[in-house]
Amino acid sequence: AAGVIQSPRHLIKEKRETATLKCYPIPRHDTVYWYQQGPGQDPQFLISFYEKMQSDKGSIPDRFSAQQFSDYHSELNMSSLELGDSALYFCASSLAGQRREQYFGPGTRLTVT
Amino acid sequence: AQTVTQSQPEMSVQEAETVTLSCTYDTSENNYYLFWYKQPPSRQMILVIRQEAYKQQNATENRFSVNFQKAAKSFSLKISDSQLGDTAMYFCAFMNPPEGGSYIPTFGRGTSLIVHP
């Protein structure tokens, strides 16, 4: 069965650079969620989209933005990167009517040097 | 705000034995969902089991089962016949979607389980 795809899987950036993470949900899933997991931490919710509209907002810094496109894939844009942004970024997707079941992607490991 | 507490940062178990991971939560809501996620060394987040609060019967998925005590706000995970592949970080999560559908889970801090051969 198709799973959530995230790209790239690993990314190394320097401070003050920008980064774009991509998420391709499971086919027919219309809701996408972004999470940040720091070293030794639990996942923290950043933002979610349903049918291309932002549906919930969590602890997402103002330096970050995200959007969902017409094909339901989503991109997380991160600017003015800081050392503290180094983390594993998960994308999850769900189907309308079954939003309690979120399927996670493999994550993108971002390292800011 | 809901909180999820996993009081065991680390646990270990011998292969083929049984282990129980504990989780407690705090909420004033009556309808909610509880989850256990597994995060192996690959860091992939995998849903292990889900429990709806309105269901009295404990959820079971093969070797994984839960002991859901609603009054005590407790949601423990039992892994029977532990296998080396069960070595992972296990996260307990709580979800309380309000009217209008916000499905954002609150995670505990995790329990690192090591299965020894």
Question: How many β-strands of chain A, per DSSP?
Answer: 11
Largest beta-sheet characterization of chain A:
7 strands, mixed
Percent of residues of chain A in helical segments?
A: under 10%
Structural class of chain A: mainly beta
Most extensive interface: pair and counts?
A-B, 23 and 21 residues
Largest sheet of chain B: 6 strands, mixed
Rough shape of chain A?
Answer: globular
SSE topology string of chain B: EEEEEEEEEEEE
| SS element count, helices of chain B | 0
Could you tell me the strand content of chain B as a percent range? over 45%
Question: What does the oligomeric state look like here?
Answer: heterodimer
Q: Pairing-aware structural class of the strands and helices of chain B?
A: mainly beta
Helix/strand order of chain A, N-terminal first: EEEEEEEEEEE
Number of helices of chain A: 0
Helicity of chain B, in percent?
Answer: under 10%
Low-confidence stretches of chain B: none
Mean pLDDT of chain A: 93
- Output mean pLDDT of chain B: 92
Task: Give the distance, in angstroms, between the N- and C-terminal Cα atoms of chain A.
Answer: 36 Å
- The rough form of chain B would be described as globular
Structure description:
The complex is a heterodimer of chains A (113) and B (117). Chain A is mainly β. Chain A has strands at 5-7, 10-13, 19-24, 31-37, 44-50, 53-57, 64-68, 74-78, 87-94, 103-104, 108-112. Helix content of chain A is 0%, strand content 50%. In chain A, strands 2, 4, 5, 6, 9, 10 and 11 form a 7-stranded mixed sheet that branches. In chain A, a hairpin with a 5-residue loop joins strand 7 and strand 8. The termini of chain A are far apart. Chain B is mainly β and 117 residues long. Chain B has no helices and 12 strands. Chain B has strands at 3-5, 10-14, 19-21, 24-26, 33-39, 46-52, 60-61, 64-69, 74-79, 88-95, 106-107, 111-116. In chain B, strands 2, 5, 6, 10, 11 and 12 form a 6-stranded mixed sheet that branches. Chain B has a 4-stranded antiparallel sheet with strand order 3-9-8-7, with no helix packed on it. A two-stranded antiparallel ribbon of chain B has the order 1-4. In chain B, a hairpin with a 2-residue loop joins strand 7 and strand 8 (64-69). Chain B starts with a strand and ends with a strand.
